[in-house]
Amino acid sequence: MSDAPFEQHPADTAFHARLPFGERLDASALTEGLPWAFEEITMRPLEPMLVPEKPRNGELDPENCSSCAPSEFTIWQDDLWQVRAGWDIGGLPFVGAISPREHWLLEDAPHEVLAAYGPLMQRISKAVKSIPGVARCHFARWNDGSAHLHLWALARPAGMMQARGAVLAFWDGMLPVMTKDMGGDHISIVAEALAAGGGEAFPNR
Ligand SMILES: [Zn+2]
Fold it and tell me: How many A from CA of 80 to the centre of ligand 1?
């Protein structure tokens, strides 16, 4: 991306016009709505919402997209999809990024690619749940960092009711980090379980 000044202005829709910018909003929706996870939360004051938003990685320059380039962190791939993990071992038993091999956004991905995701999602869930100590595999799609379509698979530890729902992702940064060996073992379990159903584990190893 160039360093040219990026002209932004406040979003001026009816939705935005009613928001209390600069004010600190009440977080009791989290402390009372998700009491198993939070006791006390202080929100940052609501910041201005500026548009147009800055381009995401690979949005203007797909040739420099990191999801398109081969990666040592690709743990499994087939002709259409790839799963990456292990660039940062965290506190959850497994966190993986799932993306098409080619540079598609959700908005323009061919139906053939999207249709293949359904069965793959089922395979990933089974593979992640085969890690010892994992009860569930949750999926998320947050595409604010990279334009290339990607989804997340996150393993919830068995019995960890404090991490149920969307707060699971936050626990990855709070639970004690796994050893490299344990993180690597979990990645191998997922990669090999996926490859047993087709595709290739560790294509760059
Ligand atoms: Zn890409």
Answer: 13
Q: How far is the CA of 201 from the centre of ligand 1 (A)?
A: 20
Global pTM?
0.93
Distance 144 CA to ligand 1 centre (A): 14
Looking at the structure, give the CATH architecture of the domain made up of residues 70-201.
2-Layer Sandwich (3.30)
CA distances to 37, 41, 154, 155, 178 from 92, rounded to whole Å, are 15, 22, 8, 6, 8
Long-range pairs of 3-12 with CB within 8 A, sequence gap ≥ 24: 6/54, 8/50, 8/51, 8/52, 9/50, 9/51, 10/48, 10/49, 10/50, 10/51, 11/49, 11/50, 11/51
Q: How many angstroms separate the alpha carbon of residue 178 from the centre of ligand 1?
A: 30
For the chain of 205 residues, list the mean pLDDT of each consecutive stretch of 10: 76 97 94 87 96 94 94 98 97 98 97 98 98 98 95 98 93 96 98 98 94
For the chain, residues classed under CATH 3.30.428.10 are 70-201
How close is the Cα of 84 to the center of ligand 1, in Å?
14
Report the DSSP beta bridge partners of residue 140.
Answer: 152
